[in-house]
Amino acid sequence: MRSDLDDHMPQDFNSDPCNFMPEIEDEEVKAWALALHCLWPQLCRKVADSVQEQPERHTLLPLPGYFFIPGQRFRELYYWDTYWVVKGLLVSQMPASAETVVKNLLHLLQEHGHVPNGSRSYYLNRSQPPLLSSMVSLIYEAKRDTLFLLEAFEALQQEYKYWNQPPKAVRLVGPNGSTVSLSRYYANTTQPRPESYREDVATAALLGGSKTEAEGLFRDIASAAESGWDFSSRWMADGRSLASLQTTRVIPADLNAFLFKFEFDMARFAEILGKPSLQEMYSSASESRRSAMNALMWHESSACWKDLILDRQPPATGVFASSYIPLWTGVAAPGSEQATRCLNSLQASGLMQRGGIATSLSETGQQWDGRNAWPPLQAMLIEAAEAVGRAQMRASPDGRLLAQAWLETCFAAWRKHRQMFEKYDASKPGDPGGDGEYPVQAGFGWTNGVALSLLQDYGWNP
Q: What global pTM score does this model have?
């Protein structure tokens, strides 16, 4: 059977880019950085003509431009992965490729009313963490193209609506009896995932409940996939088993942090584009979300934001890296006492290990738990630590040390395996991560993007 994808050479790829990583003095590290840069063509694909001509015969969704797959089993464009791919492409002096990839996501948004989990038809019933406004911001900062921003802004308003209306948006009672709106992951399906059909049916069999209960579980499984954290004890009522998933009952701290940043970005875009009424609307929405998160999710004794569980108080227990993502998006102003306390909490949490930041303190056999260290979590929390340090008018030793630990992990694995992995073991620098539904994957789009960004920002010389 003919593939629905064709290999593609990015138009702006240069195997020896000018003035690449001049701050790196170590020759072996510089060679590694160049090797990462040279992986982009290996991951670049375009949709085959057969898909464009007969889309009904394929699960791959037509796209106007080329894109970058994560690697190995992942053979399509994914939503939130793309943010770190775009950052890496910009480091690699490939702004046209970065813009092309973002325009693919905008195309999917315009075609389907939201950005799907990935560019397959079976992903249309769910999305992924909403980072598209952040990607648009990266492209605008790189190219200063107001026409691009205007076209993106119009599409982004639909993406914002998708995340801020029922069933994803939930009305909650806030301080003093006021009503506030926060969002959750909620996939539009009650069926097993087509790409993991047997696994989902087997999980439902463990539940042993009615058809209605099985359908609810299938929705919670797909909603966990929508979160990007598939799977984690964050979503499990008993903290152990997939059959106890309750994803749609969870109001996640990180999702609402992403939406806070989405609102902040939209207010800034509206200001640039001369749309004062929309600027005010999005500014007000971001402040309302900040207030609601601080009132309902901020855990005073832990100094971080915890997920809410519907119909249950207080917020969820457990130590997860997601509780610190609001620090990255600015829910706590970087110069505030709250931000300093949150960073101190991260340092004392037990998550910071020799080989990076662990996902949680629970070893459950799920890939978004325990000592698995994921590139996007490292990147967000390193940048958060750096922002707190800058606001205090000092270089952040926390950000630099976290970046160094992560680069050492990736570099050690590269020297051993000559591969970049989807995730790593935070307790054993240089070892790939484990657990989950499939073996650890190599490639790897977001890992390469994060490493290139950190190498540029910190100029690592071991």
A: 0.97
